[in-house]
């Protein structure tokens, strides 16, 4: 890139990121319906017509926020959970990347987890992203089982994966409300909860109700 | 109550429940914003002015739905998890009551879990209900520990409780999308995931990353 004097107009891509930053902040704090294009434009230091020209309607802006934050989150997790490591290491690295994302992008997490859910048509996009995470986790558990020469039914893997993803999201949301908590320590806590349980399950141990 | 001929006008309480049933169905399928008072009145077989007269605005009707479904769910769980049983039995009975609620009140669950989240001011009510569940689960784990003469820090209990509640909600949502799945069997599956993990944690076992 050529060197540019400080007063030169910012490139479009940089401006767009500033608008998205402002939009994520506004949607996180006030929700999709209450957040206004006026406050987003003002926070980004850009005129409202330019926000519309660059990123479209409020709906399109919200979708752009979901895409950016969701992609950041999923890519961070996928990059961390390298497939050549043992299953527990992969799971822990994935968890560390996830909690790292929540710690560093608290507003992004809140838009994804609290504000987009229940909002048609955004809820569908979120459900798709979540299904992808569930598949990744189920695949990781399947690899761990196959490495031990074992196999469990696909439904059982899916159920365990749903539970792990739900537990992790819930703790991610806890972290978003506890900025003083350490993301890496939270990952180790979640790993203790997830793995000590999954490890026994994968070894075929089961809990049974008594007296029923 | 005096015996009433079949053609007599229904008592107010019965009509209100019919309106709430229709409202829960509409909010579950279409969300708060898209659902209309017209379709709710039509589904309940009641005139729209009467819906307004009995249950107020659409916002008030939505809150009434949240209260009814949330109270049903929390009371079912609290009644099942009798305090004089061992911790694993209490947890399992609580889980069975929870998945039983989701199986029997699928629309109610969807309104609570998918439609109310992110909708101000309803999100606050949901967060309060969720905190109550987290407290109940943390208290149950604390009882189990004290019965073994052990104690862990309140934050650790809270973190485990958040993870368990999140895992259970996630699997409840899976059940809502799988009407062919058995609620009691889903409870046992969740118990296996939750308890085999929690049991080791409560015995003081921990997972540690290697090579870090």
CATH class of chain A: Mainly Alpha
Q: How many structural domains are formed by the residues of chain A?
A: 1
Report, as a whole number of angstroms, the end-to-end distance of chain A: 72 Å
Shape of chain A: elongated
Helix content of chain A: over 70%
InterPro entries (chains A, B): DesT_TetR_C, Homeodomain-like_sf, HTH-type_TetR-like_transc_reg, HTH_TetR, Tet_transcr_reg_TetR-rel_C_sf
GO molecular function (chains A, B): DNA-binding transcription factor activity; transcription cis-regulatory region binding
Domain HTH tetR-type (chains A, B): 13-73
Pfam families (chains A, B): TetR_C_46, TetR_N
Compact overview of the structure:
The structure is a homodimer of 212-residue chains. By secondary structure, chain A is an all-alpha fold.
What descriptors fit this protein?
homodimer, 212 residues, mainly alpha, Tetracycline Repressor, domain 2, 9 helices, disordered N terminus
Description:
The structure is a homodimer of 212-residue chains. The first copy, chain A, starts with 11 loop residues before the first helix and ends in a 10-residue tail after the last helix. Helix content of chain A is 75%, strand content 0%. Chain A has a single domain (12-202), classed as Tetracycline Repressor, domain 2 (Orthogonal Bundle), CATH 1.10.357.10. With 212 residues, chain A is mostly helical. Residues 1-5 of chain A have low confidence and may be disordered. Chains A and B meet through helix 1, helix 5, helix 8 and helix 9 of A and helix 1, helix 5, helix 8 and helix 9 of B. Chains A, B: This is DNA-binding transcriptional regulator, AcrR family. Chains A, B: Residues 36-55 bind DNA. Chains A, B: Residues 13-73 form the HTH tetR-type domain. Chains A, B: One of its GO terms (biological process) is negative regulation of DNA-templated transcription.
């Amino acid at each position: 890139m050529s060197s540019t004097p400080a007063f030169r107009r910012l490139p479009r891509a940089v401006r767009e990121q500033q608008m998205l930053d402002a939009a994520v902040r506004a949607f996180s704090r006030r929700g999709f319906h209450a957040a206004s294009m006026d406050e987003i434009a003002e926070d980004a230091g850009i005129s409202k017509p330019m926000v519309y020209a660059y990123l479209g309607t409020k709906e399109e802006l919200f979708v752009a926020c979901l895409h950016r934050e969701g992609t950041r989150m999923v890519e961070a997790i996928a990059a961390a959970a390298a497939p050549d490591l043992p299953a527990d290491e992969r799971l822990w690295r994935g968890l560390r990347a996830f909690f790292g994302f929540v710690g560093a992008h608290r507003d992004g997490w809140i838009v994804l987890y609290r504000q987009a859910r229940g909002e048609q048509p955004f809820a569908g996009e979120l459900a798709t992203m979540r299904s992808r995470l569930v598949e990744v986790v189920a695949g990781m558990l399947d690899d761990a089982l196959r490495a031990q020469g074992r196999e469990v039914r696909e439904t059982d893997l899916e159920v365990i994966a749903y539970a792990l993803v739900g537990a992790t999201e819930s703790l991610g949301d806890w972290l978003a409300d506890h900025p003083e908590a350490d993301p890496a320590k939270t990952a180790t806590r979640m790993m203790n909860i997830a793995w000590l349980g999954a490890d026994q399950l994968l070894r075929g141990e089961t809990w049974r109700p008594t007296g029923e």
